[in-house]
C-alpha cells in the first residue's frame, strides 16, 4: 500500500513538473538571439531596437519620449460609451485612430501638436509587422523605460486598427474643470479619481508643452523633465508667482519657477478636495507613484479591447534606470510656499536645493 501511495505521489509530481515546464517553456525568436514566452512577442524585438536607436536617440528620455507618451493617452482616451449609447460611434479606444485618421483627429483642438510625433512614428510602423494601434502603445511604454525612476510598464499586442475616427471632445483639455475631467475618465473606462491623478499627472511628469504658450515651445511642467520622479507633485502645489512666457494663455496658470509651465487642470486637480490628498500622497513616495501609474497605464492602453484577447508581451520592455534624484524643494523655496490643499495630512517636510531661486531650462523642441 505504501508503495502504491509513493508511486501515485511521484506520478502527480512528475505531471506537475511537465505542466510547469509547458507553462514556462520559451520559444526562440527568428533572430536566433531573443526568446519569448509567446511567439507573437518576437516581432517586437526588432521594433524595440529600431525605435530605441532611431526614434529615442539611443535610449534617451527626451522630446520624442514625451510626445510618444502623450500620444498613447490621446489615442486611448478616444472612447465614450455615453456617446455610443445615443446610437453614434463612440470611438474605439486604443485603436490607432489618431494616426490612421490623422487628417481628422489632429484638427481636434485637444490634439494640437500631436501630428509631429505621428509623422515621426509612421516610418517605423511601415517597416515593421505591427498594427498602428499596438505600435502607439508599445512606443510609449518603451520610451518611458528610458526615464530614470519610471516603472516597467505592461505591453499588450493584438489590437485591431481603427476603421473610423474617434469623436471630438473625448480628450480632456487643460482648461477643463475637475468635474469635467473626472466625468470624462469615468465615461471612458470607469477610472476613479485616484486613477485620474496617477494617469494625468504621470503623463505630464516627463513632458513639456509646445502649444499652450507657443512663444516658449518645449517648456517643461517641472524642474526635472527627463526624470520620472515626484517633483511634479511637489511643484504643482507651490504658489504660482509668474508666467514663464506670455500670460493670458488658455489652460495656463502662474508657475512657481521661471522656465516652468503650469497647466490649469493640474493646478486644480492638486487643490480639489476629491483629488488633493491623493496628489499629495505621491510627494516623496516614488514607489507608490510608480505602482499607481503602472496600473493606470495598463488600464488605459487596453481601452476598447478585451485584455483576454490580447497577448501580454511586457517581458520585452527594458527595466528603467533607477531614480536619479530625491524629492526636494527647488532652490529658494520651502514648505512656506506650499498651498496646502489636503485637509487630513500635513505636507511632507523636504530639503531645499542650495543656491539662488531655480530657473528651469526649457526642453528644446525636436
Tell me what the structure shows:
It is built from 14 helices and eight strands. The chain has helices at about 1-25, 45-55, 65-75, 80-85, 95-100, 100-105, 115-125, 130-145, 180-190, 195-205, 230-235, 265-270, 275-280, 285-300, and strands spanning about 25-30, 35, 155, 210, 220, 250-255, 260-265, 310. A hairpin with a 6-residue loop joins strand 1 (about 25-30) and strand 2. The N and C termini lie far apart (about 75 Å). About 45% of the residues are buried. It is an enzyme of class 1 (oxidoreductase). Pfam families: peroxidase (PF00141), Peroxidase_ext (PF11895).
Give me some keywords for this one.
Peroxidase, domain 1; globular; metal ion binding; peroxidase; disulfide bond
Please give the structural blueprint.
Blueprint: H1 2-24, E1 27-28, E2 35-36, H2 44-54, H3 63-76, H4 81-84, H5 97-100, H6 102-105, H7 115-126, H8 132-144, E3 156-157, H9 178-189, H10 193-205, E4 208-209, E5 219-220, H11 231-235, E6 252-253, E7 262-263, H12 264-269, H13 276-281, H14 286-301, E8 311-312
Antiparallel strand pairs: 1-2, 3-8, 4-5, 6-7
Helix pairs in contact: 3-8, 10-14
EC number: 1.11.1.-
Active site: 74
Family: Belongs to the peroxidase family. Ligninase subfamily.
Short description:
With 366 residues, this protein is mainly alpha-helical. The chain is built from 14 helices and 8 strands. Strands 1-2 form a two-stranded antiparallel sheet. It has a two-stranded antiparallel ribbon with strand order 3-8. A two-stranded antiparallel sheet has the order 4-5.
Amino acid at each position: 500500500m505504501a508503495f502504491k501511495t509513493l508511486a501515485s505521489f511521484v506520478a502527480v509530481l512528475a505531471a506537475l513538473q511537465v505542466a510547469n515546464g509547458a507553462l514556462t517553456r520559451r520559444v526562440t525568436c527568428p533572430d536566433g538571439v531573443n526568446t519569448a514566452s509567446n511567439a507573437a512577442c518576437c516581432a517586437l524585438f526588432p521594433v524595440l531596437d529600431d525605435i530605441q536607436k532611431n526614434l529615442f536617440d539611443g535610449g534617451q528620455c527626451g522630446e520624442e519620449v514625451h510626445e510618444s507618451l502623450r500620444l498613447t493617452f490621446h489615442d486611448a482616451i478616444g472612447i465614450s460609451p455615453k456617446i455610443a449609447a445615443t446610437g453614434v460611434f463612440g470611438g474605439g479606444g486604443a485603436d490607432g485612430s489618431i494616426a490612421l485618421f490623422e487628417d481628422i483627429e489632429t484638427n481636434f483642438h485637444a490634439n494640437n501638436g500631436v501630428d509631429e510625433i505621428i509623422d515621426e512614428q509612421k516610418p517605423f510602423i511601415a517597416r515593421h509587422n505591427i498594427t498602428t494601434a499596438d505600435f502607439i502603445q508599445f512606443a510609449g511604454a518603451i520610451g518611458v523605460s528610458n526615464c530614470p525612476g519610471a516603472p516597467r510598464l505592461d505591453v499588450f499586442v493584438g489590437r485591431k486598427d481603427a476603421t473610423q475616427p474617434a469623436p471630438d471632445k473625448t480628450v480632456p483639455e487643460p482648461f477643463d474643470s475637475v468635474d469635467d475631467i473626472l466625468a470624462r475618465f469615468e465615461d471612458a473606462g470607469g477610472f476613479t479619481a485616484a486613477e485620474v491623478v496617477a494617469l494625468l499627472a504621470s503623463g505630464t511628469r516627463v513632458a513639456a508643452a509646445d502649444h499652450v504658450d507657443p512663444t516658449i515651445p518645449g517648456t517643461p511642467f517641472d524642474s526635472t523633465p527627463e526624470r520620472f520622479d515626484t517633483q511634479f507633485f511637489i511643484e504643482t502645489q507651490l504658489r504660482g508667482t509668474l508666467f514663464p512666457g506670455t500670460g493670458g494663455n488658455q489652460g495656463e496658470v502662474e508657475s512657481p519657477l521661471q522656465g516652468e509651465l503650469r497647466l490649469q487642470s493640474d493646478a486644480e486637480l492638486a487643490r480639489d478636495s476629491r483629488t488633493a490628498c491623493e496628489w499629495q500622497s505621491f510627494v516623496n513616495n516614488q514607489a507608490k507613484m510608480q505602482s499607481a501609474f503602472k496600473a493606470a497605464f495598463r488600464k488605459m492602453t487596453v481601452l476598447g479591447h478585451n485584455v483576454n484577447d490580447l497577448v501580454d508581451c511586457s517581458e520585452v520592455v527594458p527595466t528603467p534606470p533607477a531614480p536619479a534624484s530625491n524629492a526636494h524643494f527647488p532652490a529658494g523655496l520651502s514648505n512656506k510656499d506650499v498651498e496646502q490643499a489636503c485637509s487630513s495630512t500635513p505636507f511632507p517636510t523636504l530639503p531645499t536645493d542650495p543656491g539662488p531661486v531655480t530657473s528651469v531650462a526649457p526642453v528644446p523642441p525636436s
